[in-house]
# Entry
Amino acid sequence: MQMSKYLVGPFTVNKPTSPEDLKLIQYVFDSSLIESETIVHCKNYHLSRRELYSLRPKAWLDDNVISTISDAITLVKRKMEDSVNWYLPIVFAENADDPSKCISFAKRHRIKENYMSDLLCCEKAFVPVFDKDRSHFFLFVLQLKTQVVEIWDSLAASCQSDWVDRRLHNLLVSLDALFKDDIDQNYQKVWSFTDFRVERPSNVPQQPNGYDCGVYVIKFMLAPEEVTNPDFVFDSDTERLEVVLRLLASDVNSCRNDLASQAEAYYEQRFGNY
# Structure
């Protein structure tokens, strides 16, 4: 029996969404409305309607979406007093590629204060990376307790290992410099990020197209246990819709209440009682 499909704005998904979510989606993705309107506003990052358009089906993801997700997850986890993992914005890996400049960048943008907790308490660090040569997003996952760094790449077959190894080495050198005082104090200099063992997990899901890498990176950060389950099936429209709704409905989105009111008024004006 063929599974039913549901249209939710631009998305075709297997399950219907709530009337409230449907109104939000129709409002947010109406191309006749102002593209520069801020739709999601967290502490350090915000997304306009134009940037959110990059979550439409088969669209190339704006890197600001990944950073805003990192910002939102961090804020939510801190509200729950669950800060054992770090979720870095994509700009961190870009600047960590030059260790000589990373410390000044991190201080200027308060990276440690905004995205990191006590080094001793951290279990995992999720570091999204953009590979300009491949026009491709992937993820470094640092397991601090076991001193392992995993490379989660949804296009592993095209990975240029020399480039990735160099980027990873520079990132680890930068982290050693950034946490030098903590390492000296707590580990008596016998612990180092550059000593982490590199692994490339074979169970990382692989994308079947050329446009979903950023959505995969977000899924890897949000649900690493789910995606490595052998039964996991990635549905692009479903995953993109879930990211949109997570951002819109999050209580760390300061636009949330206004959005709901605007979506209701928009729906009433456009569709009335029908």
